[in-house]
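User: quick one - fold this with 6-O-phosphono-alpha-D-glucopyranose bound?
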Amino acid sequence: MRLSVRLNCFLTCGVALVSLSLALFQAQVQRHGLRRELGRRAQVVAESLERSTAPLLLAGAADRLQNVVDRFVNHQHLAAAAVYDTAGKELVVTPGAQPLLAAAFGSAAPKPRPGDETSRFFSFGRRSICVVTLPVAEDTMPLGVAAVFHDASYIDAQQASFWRRALAGVLAQTVLIVCLTLLILRWSLRRPLARLTGWLSELRRGKTSAEPDLPEEAAFQPLKREAARLANTLSAARAAAVEEARLRDAAESRWTEERLRIFIQTRVAARRLFVISNREPYEHVHRGNAIECSVPASGLVTALEPILRASDGTWIAQASGHADRETVDRDDHVRVPPEHPQYTLRRIWLAPEEEQGFYFGFANEGLWPLCHIAHTRPIFRAQDWEQYRVVNRRFAEALLDEIEQEEHPVVLVQDYHFALLPRMIKEQRPDARVAIFWHIPWPNPEAFGICPWQAELLDGLLGADLIGFHVQAHCNNFLETVDRTFEARIDRDRFAVKRRGHFTFVRPFPISVLFSEDSAEAGSFENLYIERAGLLRALGVEAPMLGVGVDRVDYTKGILERFRALETFFEKYPIYRGQFTFVQIGAPSRTHIRTYQNLMEEVTLEAERINRRFREGSWKPLVFLPKHHSHSEILPYYRCADLCMVTSLHDGMNLVAKEYIASRADGQGMLILSRFTGASHELTDALQVNPYDIEGMADAIHRALEMSPEERAARMARMRTYVREHNIYRWAATLIAELAAIRLAPGESEPALIREPAVAARS
Ligand code: G6P
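Assistant: Sure. Structure tokens for the protein plus 6-O-phosphono-alpha-D-glucopyranose:
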């Protein structure tokens, strides 16, 4: 049966049933009332008859009774009246009433018993009769019985008429309610359903990915949410399928999220993955009365999330959002990503003194400048070192707690914040497979040797089965540092260290970015020109050419050197004044540290000074934007900029360089890249510069702007091919493959017994 027919039947029956029950109730009440009224009237008549007949019966004047009884015949609805003596003998009766009496009393004529009046209804033929009998007495002496009969048929007639009206009412009500309900349903459901159908059909044909246009009522919200998720999943699946098809077609072996997922599931099998980092991938913050979830700006999240999603793993990190506490459960767990939970985030809360000593102090005033060698002195305080150890221990305990029930867990420790963790974990859980990835450079042994706790740091790191750096040079520096510090066996062929019977492999894994193939990103030349002018106009500047720099305001990034190079450029090539503007996006970073506060001030003053020197009318050479920008806010600058400058004094990798390349789907733009970044080993088609050579950088800016379109396009195409093929998924796959292939062999004494880690993922 069709839905609408079923709905109609259901509604009709329902409404009719309710209306009929109501009418039945009213009929009962009416019938009861009419009968009660008739009974009351009959009682009055019977009493009157009793009063009239009593003196005659007492006087024995039975002959006068007939006259008295006959007078009652005219009462409304009276059908008959009769008087009996005390023996039940009929004394007098209204004419023609015999059959009625016989039907009422049969052979048992009424006998007088004081106070024994009765009233009842009975059927006589097709009529309904009400009979009231009343003892006739003088004082207490019984004289006989008076009986009056009323015709109650008029009650049935009234009931019949009531039912006729009631049924017509029920019918009208049912029709009206059913029609109205169907109209409302049609209005409120049919139209949204029609719109949803249209939307689904567009979705199926790949013509939309927006949300369906459904009413705002709460009842539609779950449907709306599910529909939006469906659209997202479908478009992701479609994109993955297109990508896979394209790869198959091109016979390439490019890494995608899907390929990584399958790879991890086969390599890591049933084992679960655990990640530890200082920065958390999602933080919760208060926004008005609501709690919002945001992703902190970090390449780390992009890199590690696919791994955790693929294995439903656990990420342990420091809580940083002011609403973080309100979103975790009793075990400090929260499932993420919020819109489609796939793994667990465990948050660790640090006391202010712990954060000060561990994060600001030892990690960022000690290890950060120590490893970067950017001419900022490392500061080593004993109390910072103490907090660094305490916090490493706290994270280790949290991890040990998480892996308690896991057999052979796989643990990926991130960065210089946790050098002591690998040893702490392996001491308790030798069956765990532990890797640490060092996201910053590793300096030469002399430089590292100034750290008072270098032996403890190295010992902590060598607890790991695998240590990853961005480039081979950092691996070499690390092995040299170990060699100069301990009695350890270094296997230079295999890049492994043997210490206390345990082997640690040291490998380069150049980290990367997502690379979207979306050709819609490629705007036309004219559109880019207009977009670029619009971007600059929004910043209050008129210029046809744009350069961009995107950095945390950190002394390792060479921002001041870059500004001075721009100044030299405008001095040497004045024709570019009024033509070219450089926008520096600078995210404030580690602002509790004095060096960073000073740097922010210095960068601001330097930008102002250069602007004062060159600005003309609505043009200025430099725009400094000292605030955090989301990836989507940065993207238009990348897409429009004629050049991007990365001039770090020293950098592990630098993902800005790769992000700029990945966002140039139009094949335009040029990258100026410091040769002291890890990225410079891979992006050899960038214009490579020494950030300490200000003249050289000014010339590089000039060269980038003057380069022929053909050369620029050819360089960009080669760099894009490289980044496309060495994307973030490949980085993750290579790291996991190496770690999964290491044989944990606690008893073995010879490195020859340990299998060479697989390098399949590097293909
Ligand atoms: C570097 C480090 C990361 C760190 C990032 C931002 O890239 O290698 O571990 O997360 O800087 O610094 P922050 O101190 O804000 O986390």
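One thing worth noting: Residues 747-763 have pLDDT under 50 and may be disordered.
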